[in-house]
Design brief:
- By secondary structure, this protein is of the alpha+beta class.
- It has a domain of 50 residues.
- 32% of the residues lie in helices and 28% in strands.
- The protein contains 8 helices and 13 strands.
- The strands form 5 sheets. The chain has a 5-stranded mixed sheet with strand order 7-6-5-10-11.
- Strand 6 and strand 7 form a beta hairpin.
Length: 290
């Protein structure tokens, strides 16, 4: 629970605020953001004068791989086993409510007039009714609720992962998120998971406690490679959620195999990692033994 207090701004003075934690150290900057709903949030940067935490050494036995998906949001593979974290689909749960509010907003009065200013430039003047502004705020608050629910869910997951005493290093995949949201069949589902926010939150939390976050190469075939023998399945469509290795005969779940292969990334040589780097595809197709 927050406590009532004040934030002192230069040229403005003290402003009432709800403080969610106590500040110990020197306040450097305060960034104020106004949401579309009319609420103000202040982000306070504080220097606590504490020395930086030295990150732990990378050890395969204490490494876990995280594969991001859609239906199964994240699959975590470690030495203790594999865990699947389902996608709560917050946007899907509020979709009907959003549709109704958007229909109501479309029926409200909104007049757009185009006029010329003193410089001769055309400027739009928008006039809305009180009803329009009321419905708009309801729609904005719904989007804000979805965003806060997703952020709270990500904070809970990352907190549990960071405080796992058996894992000191996590390996994630370098995804082209901007390219993925351009796919009209996957854009809404990918955005609903919040993969980018999950990666950013996990990164700063791991850094604060001295643990490692490693990003595997973008062209590393984590889903296509057999985690048992290292053989690669050349053709694997998105619809295939399970597949059998032609070399060793093991059956694999697509997400679990990807998470296990990401865990094996730390055991690859530097030359193999360079082949699957961000700037180029793999140069060879033979299996890499683990």
């Amino acid at each position: 629970m927050g406590t009532k207090g004040h934030i002192v701004f230069p040229k403005i003075g003290p402003v009432k605020a709800i403080l969610h934690r106590r500040f110990t150290g020197t306040v450097k900057t305060v960034t104020v953001v106004r949401e579309a709903s009319g609420k103000y949030y202040a982000s306070v940067l504080v220097d606590d004068a504490q020395p930086k935490v030295v990150p732990d050494t990378v050890n395969f036995e204490r490494t876990a791989g995280i594969d991001a998906g859609i239906k199964t949001a994240f699959t975590v593979a470690s030495q203790g086993g594999t865990e699947k974290i389902d996608n709560p689909t917050f946007l899907k749960k509020y979709s009907e409510q959003l549709k109704k509010q958007q229909k109501r907003l479309a029926r409200c009065l909104r007049i757009v007039n185009v006029k010329e200013n003193e410089k001769g430039e055309k400027v739009k003047e928008v006039t809305v009714s009180k009803r329009y502004e009321k419905v708009r705020k309801e729609l904005v608050r719904t989007h804000e609720r979805i965003r806060h629910c997703r952020k709270n869910w990500i904070d809970q997951i990352t907190h549990r992962l960071v405080n796992d005493s058996q894992v000191t290093t996590y390996v994630i995949e370098d995804l082209n998120l901007k390219g993925m949201v351009k796919n009209h069949h996957l854009a809404r589902a990918v955005s609903d998971v919040g993969i980018g926010n999950f990666y950013r939150t996990l990164q700063y939390k791991l850094k604060a406690v001295g643990k490692n976050l490693i990003v595997a190469g973008r062209w590393y075939p984590s889903s296509k490679r057999c985690p048992e023998c290292g053989a690669k399945k050349e053709r694997l469509t998105l619809k295939e959620r399970e597949w059998r290795c032609a070399q060793c005969g093991h059956e694999h779940d697509r997400d679990e195999a990807a998470a296990r292969n990401l865990r094996h990334w730390v055991r690859l040589s530097e030359s193999d990692k360079h082949r699957y780097g961000r700037n180029g595809r793999a140069l060879e197709k033979e299996a890499i033994p683990f």
